[in-house]
Structures are given as C-alpha cells and as structure tokens.
Amino acid sequence: MKIVVTGAAGFIGSHLCEHLLASGDHEVIGVDAFVREELQIIGNKNIEGFYNHPNFQMITANILDIDWHKTLENADIVYHLAGIPGVRSSWGADFRSYVDTNILGTQRLLEACSSLALQKFVFASTSSVYGETTGQVSEDRKLAPLAPYGISKLTGEHLCRVYSDRVPIVILRYFTVYGPRQRSDMAFHRFIRQLLHNDPITLIGDGSQSRDFTYIKDCVEATAAIVNAANVIGETINIGGKERATVTNVIQSLELLTGKQANIIQSGMMHGEPMHTWADISKANKLLNYEPKISLMTGLAREVEYLSHYYK
Ligand SMILES: NC(=O)c1ccc[n+]([C@@H]2O[C@H](COP(=O)([O-])OP(=O)(O)OC[C@H]3O[C@@H](n4cnc5c(N)ncnc54)[C@H](O)[C@@H]3O)[C@@H](O)[C@H]2O)c1
Questions:
Q1: DSSP state of 137
Q2: What is the distance between the alpha carbons of residues 295 and 68, in angstroms, rounded to a whole number?
Q3: What is the DSSP code string of 257-282?
Q4: I want to staple 46 with a disulfide (CB 3.0 to 4.6 A). Which of 14, 50, 98, 208 is the partner?
Q5: 2-182+213-243+277-293: which CATH topology?
Q6: For a substitution probing ligand 1, which of 87, 95, 174 has the most ligand atoms within 8 Å of its CB?
Q7: How far apart are the CA of 85 and the centre of ligand 1, in A?
Q8: Do 189 and 216 touch, CB atoms closer than 8 A?
C-alpha cells in the first residue's frame, strides 16, 4: 500500500514510518517541516535509520502549503500526525501555531483527501480532549479540554467528523507516549536529562499527578494495526499503555535506573493539565487486537539507554 505519514520526522511519526517500512509491504511517503528547533538538530537522527530505505520518500514541506494533490496521488492510507504538541506552550502567544497547524493544517489535508479514493485517514488526537476525569475513561466520556492544546486537537477531531461523509476517518486518542526519541519538552525526557547531567529535577505540580503511560512500541503497533483492521472507519479509539503511575513513582524508578539521587525542585503548578489520566482500551483491544506489552520499568530503561547515548 502507499501510505502518507505527516509528522514523519517527529517522535511518534518516525517510529511509525520505521514500523511500516519494516513490514516490507508498503511504500511510505513522509511529510514534515521540522518545525521545532530541537527537530532541526535531532530530526535527522530520528529518521536516519530509514531515510535511505528504497520504499521511503521524505518530503520536507509545511502541511499548510504543500501541493497535496501531487503528494497524495494514489495514496491508500494517510496518517496525520503532524501537529504542534504540548500543553504548557499552548498558553499565550504561541497558540497561533497550534491554530495554524492543528486546525487549519488538518482542514486543508481533509479537504485534499475528500476527492480521493482513500481507504483510511487516521488522525492523531490526544487524551487531553477529556480534561479532568475520574476512573477509566472510555471514548464516549464527556469532552472538556483544560488547555488551548486540547481545544486545538478537539477541533481537529470535529473537522474529521464533518468531513467523514467524504473521508474515511479514524481518530486515535493517544495517552502520554514515552520511549526513545521522546520530545525534549516531555517530562520523562527532561527528568532523565537532568539526572544524567546531575542537574536538579524540575517538577511541575506536587508529583502526585498520575498518567496512563504508553510505550512508543505499543503505541505504534496499535497505530499500524489500523492498516488491516476492519470496522474502524468513523471510530474514535483510545490508545493507552500497560501501566499507570504517579510522576513521583516515575522519578523513583529513574533514580534506580540511573543510580543517581534526584534533587527535586518544584518549578510551578500545573495549569491546564488533569490530575489523572486512565484509558479504557477495551475498544482498541476489540477492534485492533491491541494489548500493550511493555511495562513502565522496561520502557523507562529503554529511554534511559537511548538518552545516555544521545547526550554523550
Ligand atoms: N507524544 C504524545 O504523548 C502524544 C499524545 C497525544 C497526542 N499526540 C499527538 O501525536 C502527534 C505526534 O506527536 P509527537 O509527540 O510525535 O510530536 P513531534 O513534535 O515529535 O512530532 C510532530 C511532527 O509534526 C511536524 N510538524 C508540525 N507542524 C507541522 C507543519 N505545519 N507542517 C509539517 N510538519 C509539521 C513536526 O516537525 C514534528 O516532526 C501530534 O499530533 C500530537 O498532538 C502525541
């Protein structure tokens, strides 16, 4: 199949491309503008393992002004992962970039897809659309984002819905993804870097906030399973991980894995982030045969190993 992946140089997108290419069954077209400063340095590192793969083509372009007609020619599946992620930076003036990419960019891509004979259009959404919740959250839970980021992704979901009579949409809601290549603004990456450099750990909130943490390999297996899945068109599906933990638990595990003691400095309160997330993944299990396999300790060990080499 011919598969177009937007956000191909990013954390999740690069792992997805690698996974799709490894199957040997697909031609993969990656689209990315390397928008974050960090990606201009590490982006090439993300894609270096498959950049020269004979079935891969990288298009460096912004989703807002790319020639979609040409890029999408004969495409069977589109994975739309390009986005401006991150809750904290969505407050203030930076929201402009969230609106441009997450809303306008998504609409332009959907518009271009609406005249094609696509098999599936997969939109990467987020647990942030739920807001503050208690207990396990299924896909039909009330949606109440707490931050501008969640608003931009929920608007992306709504756009998918209004195009769904012409575009075969599938919405995936990812719950905090971690592992090698994780973005440097994400908590695990920051904690590991600080421990490796013997710097104080900057903790936002009091550490009792808990998350459903999804290891990248599990996330990508669920995402790639969409290719052959039946009965997924029009569905919204939670992709959560094997284990939940508090941020304090995670720091304790990282102390064990790095052999270093954390000097924790509280660096502000949470703003626009829920206290807890917990995915009900029974729908992913039923439709995608999804069962997350990687324990938090194993996943953290792999991220520590990756970042130890990266920061050498
Ligand atoms: N990482 C997570 O835990 C998580 C959780 C929920 C949802 N998501 C969603 O998954 C997707 C991927 O997240 P990630 O963590 O891999 O982020 P990332 O920043 O590593 O990847 C996003 C990629 O999109 C590209 N991009 C951004 N704007 C673009 C534009 N206008 N044109 C072309 N390329 C552009 C970036 O250069 C980047 O490579 C995002 O849509 C995000 O909202 C991620």
A1: B
A2: 39
A3: HHT----EEE----SS--SB--B--H
A4: 14
A5: Rossmann fold (3.40.50)
A6: 174
A7: 6
A8: no
Task: Report CA(124)–ligand 1 centroid distance (Å).
Answer: 9
Q: Catalytic amino acids?
A: 149
Tens digit of pLDDT per residue, the chain (312 long)? 999 999 999 999 999 999 999 999 999 999 999 998 777 776 578 999 999 999 999 999 999 999 999 999 999 999 999 999 999 999 999 999 999 999 999 999 999 999 999 999 999 999 999 999 999 999 999 999 999 999 999 999 999 999 999 999 999 999 999 999 999 999 999 999 999 999 999 999 999 999 999 999 999 999 999 999 999 999 999 999 999 999 999 999 999 999 999 999 998 888 999 999 999 999 999 999 999 999 999 999 999 999 999 998
Which amino acid appears at position 97 of this protein? S
- Distance, in Å, from the CA atom of 189 to the CA atom of 304, rounded to the nearest integer, reads 8
Domain ranges in the chain?
2-182+213-243+277-293
The answer, yes or no, to whether any atom of ligand 1 lies below 6 A from the CB of 63, is yes
Tokens representing 208? 């009792």
Q: Say how far apart CA 309 and CA 277 lie, in whole Å.
A: 31
